[in-house]
Amino acid sequence: MKSIVPIFSLFVLLLTGCAANYDIVYDYNMNVDFEKYSTFVLCNEDIFPEKTSHPKIDNEFNRSLIAREVSEQMEMRNHQTNIFDPELQAGFRIVVKKETVSFKDCFYSEEFSYWKECKITEETYNQESLILYVADFNTNTIIWQASTDCDLSKSKKNLKPYIKELVRRLYSTYPKLIKDSETL
User: Is residue 162 one of the residues assigned to a domain?
Assistant: First the structure.
């Protein structure tokens, strides 16, 4: 029995240590009654890629998955799609921040100061963020937004469940409850 406890503990530690858990940052207008809204439209411009310099991250496939999940989350909160007379506009942004980091030799000596640079290597990192928002169509103001870091360069097979969960987690901060959860 004693030998099982350390193995189980190590297994749990590995599972929790490898899980990507990104923080969610969100904000909403507390003066708005989200229950009064019943219709929405998805922002069409958000469906088409903007960042052609990152085709593995920002592409039509990823955007269509995100758009589908945003629509589903809005409908689960009793907002119905209405392109002719929407009260809300739902949308999203994919932000990619590119940063190049130089790794240098930390050894410093006066006798080697004639070297121009002590660079070991240089790496470029892409930090991706997904931002979801809902705006009041009449006042043209954002009433809710949520964002998190993400990884949209996954394989197509893994991307669909990943985006579904990512959008669901972001919408968990939306002030209007899911239809079925009101009865729980």
Answer: yes
Structural domain containing residue 132 = 20-96+128-176
140 lies in a domain?
yes
pTM of the model: 0.74
pLDDT in tens, 133-154: 999 999 999 999 999 999 999 9
pLDDT tens for residues 12-65?
A: 433 333 345 569 999 999 999 999 999 999 999 998 887 678 888 899 999 999
pLDDT at 9 over 80: no
Instruction: Please count the structural domains in the chain.
Output: 1
Within a domain: 58: yes
What CATH number does the domain containing 71 carry? 3.30.160.670
Residues in the chain: 184
Examine residue 106 and state whether it is found in any structural domain, yes or no: no
Q: Supply the DSSP string of the chain, one letter for each residue.
A: -TTHHHHHHHHHHHHHHHS----EEEEE-TTS-GGG--EEEE-GGGGS---TT-TTTSSHHHHHHHHHHHHHHHHHTTPEE-SSS-SEEEEEEEEEEEEEEEEE-----GGGTTSS--EEEEEEEEEEEEEEEEEETTTTEEEEEEEEEE-TTS-HHHHHHHHHHHHHHHHTT-SSPPGGGGG-
